[in-house]
Amino acid sequence: MKKDIEQKLLAKNTSPTSMRILVYELLEQQQVAMSLSDVERHFYKADRVTIYRTLKTFEEKGIVHSIQENNTSKYILCHDACDSKMHNDSHLHFYCKVCQETTCKEEFILPSVSDHKYRIDEIKLFAKGVCEKCLK
Ligand SMILES: [Zn+2]
Ligand SMILES: [Zn+2]
Ligand SMILES: [Zn+2]
Questions:
Q1: 19 alpha carbon to ligand 2 midpoint, in Å?
Q2: Rounded distance between C-alpha atoms, residue 69 and residue 59, angstroms
Q3: Residues forming beta bridges with residue 93, ordered by sequence position
């Protein structure tokens, strides 16, 4: 388990420090995006700055992508297709008003934007509603 995570971090040119392994492990267990405070709640002993830096490093290395929600960022693991040069996460992010969880909806993908004369660096596709769990 720990070895797997080490491999995954190394594959994205990130040295597997113990903090990074712990944060990765936590994110891997979640199906939903987590904010800095959510991650912090799992690590009483680590300070907020260290966790913040870990998440920022992960984002730079293509390990996680962030979702802006009101004034907070939430983080969720990327697929293997992302790396430090480019993220490929142009799918819909869905926020449930009932459970307040944010998830990736990869069935909604934006069309390719590379053949235009202008350059798009980021597109945000964000929806609010009620998730399948809460609709039951
Ligand atoms: Zn990504
Ligand atoms: Zn819900
Ligand atoms: Zn996503």
A1: 30
A2: 16
A3: 104, 126
Other C-beta atoms lying within 10 Å of the C-beta of residue 61: 18
Ligand nearest to the CA of 82: 1
- 98, 136 Cβ separation under 8 angstroms: no
11 CA → ligand 1 middle, Å: 14
In this predicted structure, what is the pLDDT of residue 124?
82
The pLDDT assigned to 61 comes to 97
Find residue 74's DSSP bridge partners: 35, 67
Neighbours of ion ligand 3 (CB under 5 A): 89, 104
Size of the chain, expressed as the number of residues it contains: 136
pLDDT along the chain (136 residues), means of 10: 92 96 96 95 90 97 93 92 89 96 92 74 88 96
Which ligand places an atom closest to the C-alpha of 101? Answer: 2
CATH topology of domain 2-135: Arc Repressor Mutant, subunit A (1.10.10)
pTM here is 0.89
Q: What is the pLDDT of residue 119?
A: 79
